[in-house]
Write a structure and sequence with these properties.
Elements (H helix, E strand, L loop, with lengths): L2 H8 L2 E8 L2 E9 L6 E7 H49 L9
Length: 102
Amino acid sequence: MIKWQKQFGNKQTGTFDAKLGEDIYFIHYEKVGINDWYVVTTAADETIASELIRLIVLSLGLCLLVNLILISITIYIDYSNQKQNRKLYKVAYIDPITRTGK
């Protein structure tokens, strides 16, 4: 009995790969629950690889966007704190009439 036939007969779900010529295919099966029926799907490794690359690029783009937003927020908060500190310094140490330090 072939390896995939043993897997197919013993489990409710599973995935295995099969080589057909130079191409590799991934085969996934899942038991439906009616009689002994299964749903079987196949996908070429090239299809999976292209989708994986697309997902990685999308994930990296989102990470970059989130990092840029966080950096922008950090810079804004720092700038606001510096501005507030300058105002507090003027109120505490600069005479409003003569504009000189105390």
